[in-house]
Design a protein that fits this description.
The complex is a heterodimer of chains A (about 250) and B (about 250). Chain A has about 250 residues and is mainly α. In chain A, about 80% of the residues lie in helices and about 0% in strands. Chain A contains 10 helices and no strands. In chain A, helix 2 runs antiparallel to helix 9. Chain A starts with a helix and ends with a helix. In chain B, helix 3 runs parallel beside helix 5. Chain B has 9 helices and 10 strands. Classes of the chains: A mainly alpha (about 250), B alpha/beta (about 250).
Chain lengths: ~250, ~250
């Protein structure tokens, strides 16, 4: 039964090209029009990668800046961290995207500033901020997992807070932080699909546009799914490579 | 040099409602070796940790080299650069080599060049008798070697005072003496030391002053000879008989 379930979709896909109801020709690279379509779909890859990468880097930076007050001994700082995390974490991505893209420029205008937000940066800001609440929690857990004695030893050899973090705590925490951060990166890549609704020409937007002209949703969205799959698999491989390299470092 | 390196006057500390330190008065002169002993939970580690402000005291005055410890970050930084600390659990940085463990402080906090710092590091590794382990990671060393690296790491900051918080308690018995030997050598060279330990042999050998703490108080204080042969208080006598009977 289990085998049958696994085989069924494959049979469907394989059988499609000859079937009357399926139209794989639409993305058949051996046909001129199919190849044009495939190129059109894949051309969204650059934007998806750019948005995801920039948002991930921003999220990693913002997340750290949010996490550090959460580790403070002072209650006020910790409260600030809690408020940010709880608030940002509670906002669904799509409403936040609308708010940033349509709302934020008005906020700027009311302050007398003219800051246009295009779909590219609208998507990046939204993804970065939304994800940073999660990255912050990952940092906090990772840093807290480093024994207190490490921080104390760093203090007793005269390192200040920033130096202690930079040279002692973070290099150790990063090994524990990396796998969950990679998860978050994958999450960002997938969520970048929402950028399509504000007109960003990335993978999903391209697929939507082609569906409208070709009216072949199954074939086109199937290809779309595989495009994301390939991206995510590449990230996974990259992270595993990075982990191995760091692990080798650790053993010295 | 008989000026006070460390001065504690009426120091009190609470962990929430638990009164860990009760009116601690203690003077450590420059070059003096003070050994603090007492049952666990007596506050002896806390005294040492207050001296370099890993713990904050709530009442009283602590002066190191005449500088009073306040909440002011600058005074704490000044004190820490004068006071080295050796921990029970070594607390070496596991991601760095032995040499990097030793040069981190001098380079980042003291502003030494890498070359100067490495020379200094090798000098002190030599002094703790492990000149050949510089490029290993801490996990590759035995406990005794790790603790000696930790001592060398403190020495690289050239502190005026070295604090030891039960430096041999986490060691296998056969490694205790190699660490104590290094500490005796340091003592002989005139380092000012405050040592929390149960190693009474070491205490007899190097201590200028013995301190017995119990329940957050200094119960007994005196020169070692007097301390070991004629302790005044019952609690101290009882404690000594327990740890010396083996």
């Amino acid at each position: 039964m289990k085998k049958l379930l696994m085989i069924t979709p494959l049979l469907l896909l394989a059988g499609c090209s000859s079937s009357q109801t399926w139209g794989w020709y639409v993305i058949d690279p051996t046909k001129a029009s199919g190849w044009t379509n495939v190129k059109f779909l894949i051309s969204g890859m650059g934007a998806t990668i750019q948005i995801s990468l920039i948002a991930a880097v921003m999220s990693i930076v913002i997340g750290l800046l949010v996490a550090l007050p959460g580790l403070s001994e002072k209650r006020g700082w910790r409260l600030l961290n809690r408020i940010y995390v709880e608030f940002v974490r509670a906002i669904p991505l799509l409403p936040m995207l609308f708010w940033v893209f349509y709302g934020l420029p008005i906020v700027f205008q009311s302050m007398g500033m003219n800051v246009p937000i295009d779909p590219f940066w609208g998507a990046i800001i939204t993804l970065a901020v939304s994800d940073s609440a999660f990255t912050a929690e990952i940092y906090r857990a990772g840093i807290q997992s480093i024994a207190r004695g490490q921080r104390e030893a760093a203090q007793t050899i005269g390192l200040n807070y920033v130096q202690t973090m930079r040279y002692v705590i973070l290099p150790q925490a990063i090994r524990r932080i990396l796998p969950p951060l990679a998860n978050q990166f994958i999450y960002i890549v997938k969520m970048s699909a929402f950028a399509s609704v504000i007109g960003m020409q990335e993978l999903t937007r391209r697929a939507n546009e082609l569906v409208v002209t070709e009216y072949r949703p199954l074939e086109i969205y199937t290809l779309l799914i595989f495009e994301y799959l390939i991206l995510v698999l590449i990230i996974s491989a990259g992270v595993r490579w990075l982990e191995r390299r760091m692990g080798a470092d650790e053993r010295g | 040099m008989q000026d006070a390196a460390i001065e504690l006057v009426g120091v009190n500390k609470w962990f929430d409602t638990f009164h860990v330190l009760k009116d601690i008065n203690l003077t450590v002169k420059s070059g003096e070796k003070v050994v603090i002993c007492g049952p666990s939970g007596s506050g002896k580690s806390t005294v040492v940790r207050c001296i370099n402000q890993l713990e904050k005291h709530q009442k009283g005055t602590i002066r190191v080299d005449g500088i009073e410890l306040t909440d002011d970050a600058k005074s704490v930084a000044t004190i820490r650069s004068e006071v080295g600390m050796v921990f029970q659990q070594f607390n070496l940085f596991p991601h760095l080599t032995v040499l990097e463990n030793l040069t981190l402080g001098p380079i980042k906090a003291r502003g030494l060049s890498r070359k100067e710092a490495e020379e200094k590091a090798r000098h002190y590794l030599d002094r703790v008798h492990i000149p050949d382990q510089a490029d290993k990671k801490p996990v590759q060393l035995s406990g005794g070697q790790q603790q000696r690296v930790a001592i060398a790491r403190s020495l690289c900051m050239e502190p005026r005072v070295l604090l030891f918080d039960e430096p041999t308690s986490a060691l296998d018995p056969e490694m205790i003496s190699e660490v104590l030997d290094v500490m005796v050598e340091l003592a002989d060279e005139g380092m000012t030391m405050v040592v929390v330990t149960h190693e009474m042999g070491f205490a007899r050998k190097v201590a200028d002053k013995m301190i017995f703490m119990d329940a957050g108080e200094i119960v007994e204080e005196g020169n070692p000879e007097h301390f070991f042969t004629a302790p005044q208080s019952d609690r101290c006598r009882q404690f000594l008989s327990q740890i010396l009977q083996h």
